[in-house]
Amino acid sequence: MKAVESWPDHLLTLAEWSAFPEEQRGRCRELVDGVLVLAPQPPRHQLAVWRLAAQLEPALPRRVAALARIELVIEQAHPATVRVPDVLVVGGAAGAAHATRVLPPDVLAAIEIVSPGSRRTDRVMKFAEYAQCGIEHYWLLDTEGSVRLSTHRLRDGRYEPTGEYSGQVTLELDGITLPLDLDALTALRTTA
Fold first, then answer.
1. How far apart, in whole angstroms, are the C-alpha atoms of residue 29 and residue 40?
2. pLDDT in tens, 90-108
3. 3-state secondary structure of 162
4. Which CATH architecture has domain 42-185?
């Protein structure tokens, strides 16, 4: 394992985070209360991320976009927190511009793909952070075994479960109809 050349020895500001070198290939880089956090991104996880964004995108209206692996600034003040959700559905100017960094008011839905190394973060920490900053919809996609999607909606400052899905489903997100084939997110391609 190769050591990181220059690891920060202090809590990073948002400006320092922005100037930090690009993430290592196959890893997710986030900033949590000023602390740099790296997490592995297994191939099955990465495949599901890109396929999910590709399935969502055609169903979205013009000023809404499904963006994979972009920065979501949870807290701008020091110590800053910047999460990188697997997929965000964003609207307004961020959706029209296909932004590379967004703020919570731009987000219609945050979607995390749960991996063995992210279970606690996705189900506890991000669950609380996204609710606290007012993101209305939070979806968790579990790809271990058969693919399952659990959806949550913000009510009175807390997420409440709104559904559990598998297979081919049609979901509604703020009046937008979203057809999804959950099994296709991780299915291996077969030769004809």
1. 9
2. 997 777 676 778 999 999 9
3. strand
4. Alpha-Beta Complex (3.90)
